[in-house]
Design goal:
heterodimer; B: alpha+beta; 12% strand
């Protein structure tokens, strides 16, 4: 597990790809393979995630920031399925698991 | 007197416990008045380090009249000092002794490990929800929040662009050209207007050209499973 940032805007995505490249290069020198699959082996553990810390100018304002965060969360709640569709294969795997498995 | 019966796992347990204590933001208006003699927490500390627990306790200690002690307790299976516990067999227990009331809760973590965010949820300091608001944000009433939904193989450009587009109301590039929202866009490079997000990622362009969210989900699933997605028969010069 490692942390990146804080970055501004699209710089975070660049940093993430550079860190993935460095990880692949370092593993190549040790004759290792790297997979970014959230669940390479089926197991009971939680699939690997990539949490994203996010803040804007409004949420950083003292006093009114928490209200802005709640507004953001309400927007995210309405657009949940749109995000899920874009968030990659691992999330779709997680969605497709029947509830008896849990 | 308050009896705590339903505990949530992990950090949510701590936050639900601390929600009973007088908060700093309440400033004189104490919704709950409990004189706490002793708090004993027994947590699966594989995910939640001892330092987190101690910090959370110490943050609240100044606001309480009685000092809190954090030490291994005798009635626990495992003391709070153990840092490496198995994911599968550990049980979550909490006992809160407020005067004469003893509350217990026991949840197997195996049932809870993969529960995260099949539906949307948000919470303070919980690792099992879609959106987590950290405790520092709650106390300062400003700061950041954490989107815990993306998997480890995410496309960072796509995820960050969608997050900004949703929260700040910035239209995506192809969606802005749809205008009436009839779902018939145009494929191909276009000049970027001011105030739009410029996206090169192909899934975003596909999603923007579709009508609803569900069809985007179907298209992306077919694409991920190796089949070719349904071609969009859209003439190049439909838009003006």
């Amino acid at each position: 597990m490692y942390h990146l940032g804080p970055c501004v805007g699209v710089g975070l995505a660049d940093e993430l790809w550079v860190s993935r490249y460095l990880l692949l290069r370092a593993a190549e020198m040790q004759n290792l393979n790297v997979t970014f699959d959230p669940e390479p082996v089926p197991s009971n553990l939680q699939p690997l995630s990539c949490a994203l810390e996010y803040s804007t100018f409004e949420t950083q304002q003292p006093g009114s920031g928490i209200d802005q965060i709640h507004k953001h969360i309400e927007l995210l709640r309405q657009n949940h399925i749109r995000h899920v569709a874009a968030y990659g294969k691992g999330y779709l795997q997680r969605l497709s698991i029947p509830s008896q498995v849990f | 007197m308050t009896v705590i019966t339903d505990f949530q796992p992990g950090r949510k347990l701590i936050s639900s416990l601390f929600s009973l204590l007088p908060l700093k933001e309440n400033k004189g208006v104490h919704k709950f008045k409990i004189h706490i003699d002793k708090i004993a927490l027994i947590l699966p500390l594989s995910q939640y380090s001892v330092g987190d627990v101690k910090r959370l306790v110490l943050m609240r200690e100044q606001e309480l009249s009685t000092p809190l002690t954090l030490k291994p307790c005798t009635f626990a299976h495992r003391s709070i000092c153990s840092t490496s516990m198995s994911h599968l067999d550990c049980k979550l227990q909490c006992k809160v002794i407020t005067g004469k009331i003893i509350c217990k809760s026991s949840v197997s973590t195996q049932d809870l490990l993969r529960q995260r965010s099949r539906e949307f949820s948000s919470g303070y300091g919980s690792k099992l929800t879609s959106i987590m608001i950290p405790h520092s944000t709650r106390l300062n009433r400003c700061g950041h929040y954490i989107d815990q939904r993306p998997a480890s193989n995410m496309d960072p450009y796509l995820v960050t662009a969608l997050l900004v587009s949703t929260t700040l109301g910035v239209p995506l590039r192809a969606a802005a050209h749809n205008g009436g929202g009839n779902g018939h866009g145009s494929i191909g490079p276009r000049p970027v207007e001011q105030g739009e997000l410029y996206l090169q990622s192909s899934p975003v362009q596909k999603m923007c050209q579709l009508d609803g969210c569900v069809s985007a989900l179907v298209l992306l699933t077919a694409h991920e499973s190796g089949e070719s997605p349904t071609p969009l028969h859209i003439p190049a010069d439909t838009v003006e």
